[in-house]
């Protein structure tokens, strides 16, 4: 056999070369479906298993699991992908895991891009920002609440109170609203702040604290206060649940069929006691009476309640259809931080401590009355440092 040069050899071999395959052409939609399936194959090759559903899984694994379910359901997709399914993923059955997720269309996990007209299976239209991903990770890190039995009745009560109007929901506004005992609605679940650790300053110079947050689905999270704040801000439907309303304590005027039941009164003492003299402008007695204020204070000079001295009426507010004692207790609770610690001898020489006197400016008392009228007073307390009403959790 004579030697052949390379060109002749190539010519000989060309006669036996297999016929070239005609290059397949795909529509843009088919190309997107193929590309999406290749994402699933890469996951399989990297992890040695199919993607599975479950809240504890990576957000993209959950997407691939939902996508694979959909590809298996659509016969046109199975036919298209047969030649690409080198691992037999379309027919592979593995050990049963969590049930397939039925997710809200607005959720990333329902984003089966490319399986609808004009969609791109490789483009996640609702891909979240870095902060949103961190929020999703917080959700994924929730643990089962082992003592949920003691919290379950609380959630039932809150739901009942929301239904009957004792509680209402309002938009979340301030980090200070996050405090032990507070309820919120975030991503469709009611959560309860059961515990709060000591407040610290994070590396960014902002205050934060570790929380124990219980969710009404029986899970809990040890998230940071700012993580909960971020989730509430990012959730368009995020809400705070108000404390139980005390009812219509006030009315600017009596409604039909409703009778006037009392008056809030604010008094100043004319006592010459050194403490009273020093703080007379801001030292007030706050009370509620179902009778006439004039009758109530007629014998002030003989009563230790009035510091055994005459008083002047600084302000009055009419109240309608209320329990005067409960209303008075509410006002005293709001201003408890400003209650004056003063001891004086009564008519018999016994030392007594009048408990209805507070170091509070009159304009703040007026503000408190307005907040009781609009039912927001339960969210506030008096802060002596700023001499104003602040939301619970602020100025601490």
Which labels suit this protein?
4-stranded antiparallel β-sheet, elongated, 396 residues, 7-stranded antiparallel β-sheet, 3 domains, SH3 type barrels, 11 helices, alpha+beta, single chain
Residue-averaged pLDDT, rounded? 77
**Helices and strands, in N-to-C order?**
HHHHHEHEEEEEEEHEEHEHEHEEEHEE
In helices, the fraction of residues equals: 25-40%
Integer count of domains: 3
* Share of β-strand residues: 15-25%
In which order are the strands of the major sheet placed?
1-8-7-4-3-9-2
Q: What composes the largest sheet?
A: 7 strands, antiparallel
User: Helix tally?
Assistant: 11
- Supply Rg: 35 Å
| Ends apart, CA distance between termini | 101 Å
Q: How many strand elements?
A: 17
- Shape annotation: elongated
User: What would you call the structural class?
Assistant: alpha+beta
Oligomer: single chain
Task: Give an overview of the whole structure.
- It is a single chain.
- This protein is α+β, with helices and mostly antiparallel strands.
- The protein has three domains: 28-127, no CATH class; 131-241, SH3 type barrels (Roll), CATH 2.30.30; 260-391, no CATH class.
- 30% of the residues lie in helices and 19% in strands.
- The protein is built from eleven helices and 17 strands.
- The chain has helices at 6-14, 28-47, 59-73, 75-81, 130-140, 152-164, 225-234, 274-279, 293-296, 324-334, 362-373, and strands at residues 143-144, 169-171, 183-186, 189-196, 200-201, 207-208, 211-215, 219-221, 239-241, 260-269, 283-289, 311-320, 344-345, 351-352, 357-359, 380-383, 388-391.
- Strands 1-8-7-4-3-9-2 form a seven-stranded antiparallel beta sheet, covered by helices on one side. A four-stranded antiparallel beta sheet has the order 12-10-11-15.
- Helix 2 (28-47) crosses helix 3 (59-73) and helix 5 (130-140) crosses helix 7.
- The longest helix is centred in the first third of the chain and has 20 residues, at 28-47.
- The radius of gyration is 35 Å and the shape is elongated.
- Residues 101-129 have low confidence and may be disordered.
